[in-house]
């Protein structure tokens, strides 16, 4: 049966009714201090399941709450003092949310410090809270892509289902380290014991091996940093670890999208977010003794300058009305 | 609100038919997807088995907004005797299959669809339904306990369906 769309009048606008919030991540270039900017005028209508590059889907989140701590003061004159005008005395904002999934990215963003990979340890390594001395990494050979790691004969050292960290060796770099996303800041080689595996230990450039054939490790999803250049190595890992303490703040560009049931969309874009609390969880009862444990993140927004008018701002809220709604 | 009911029924019917095309029912001599709206059919004491039967029950309206928001309760009952070739011993599996079909149809995104006016299209007029200005949307299905009625297994699931009452719409 075909459908005929006849001319319809404008429909009164209503408050958005929504179910849940979808979160997206994009890296901030920490060296240059450049966030990833989202232009809702150009990309606002994207399909939730396929965000525009370089945005990465963080999945659904719940209990999203943004708080404005911006303070507006009264400017008074005379006696008795009479309010003549208002001034903005402080601009501050924060965001809280609960991630529905425990992925590497979600863990890292919510951690409030470096989020490390539990690299497979070398034989006889001394015990250490964030993982002992790592086993020797496997070098990539030519021909790797973001989803296929060519390791040649060393492929026999890996198994399907294994997690891997792919990044460069630590060779006395100072500053932000980590491919794709700045994962840590190294102040001196001595501070990280000159560990050749340190960058792979903190890297967010991780993946899971889903197939192995002809010396190639096939990954289940593309690496965050894209095609790995020659010189990178692969380390197996068993999981992730973060710590209460540490002095590094993850910083990311955040995008939160809330679709309304009437075809409207609310988009919150925070170009620069840093965790403002340590690792935390929220237990949600399921049934009986079962609980769902959700990652809790709290983030402070940092400023950017709007190119349109030079204003210093923390967040952009865009609203895309549904079709044929009054404005 | 009738438009919203019709729209939800058609959406659910099409989704259920896509999930399991083999689930059909013969009604008034016509083979169609195995879902019907009880109030749209001839009154009968017979409970169809292996099909989904919609009953519109609760209704509330929030008239405080620019458009009244109607909340309607749709009870979806279904039952199975199992396969006679198996002596009915597969009735639990068949009911579980219907549970899964309903979850897939109701919970699949998007849980919203453009409200349609089927009045002109009714009765084999050949006219196309007319798209309206708002969407019908709904929540997930809440499943009641399975009940045993003789050799029959039955269940009722409930879905809250929402719509805005548009200007001039009855």
Feature tags:
heterodimer; A: 327 residues; mainly beta; Pnp Oxidase, Chain A; seven-stranded antiparallel sheet; six-stranded antiparallel barrel; 21 strands; B: 170 residues; alpha+beta; STM4215-like; eight-stranded mixed sheet; two-stranded antiparallel ribbon; 10 strands; 21% helix; globular
Distance between the termini of chain B: 7 Å
What is the general shape of chain B?
globular
Global mean pLDDT of chain A: 94
Reading the helices and strands of chain A in chain order gives: EHEEEEHEEEEEEHEEEEEEEEEE
- Assigned CATH architecture of chain B: 2-Layer Sandwich
Largest sheet of chain B: 8 strands, mixed
Estimate the strand proportion of chain B.
35-45%
State the total count of DSSP E strands of chain B. Answer: 10
- Which fold name fills CATH's third level, the topology of chain B? STM4215-like
User: How much helix is in the residues of chain A?
Assistant: under 10%
Q: How would you describe the oligomerization state of the chains in this entry? A: heterodimer
Radius of gyration of chain A (CA) equals: 24 Å
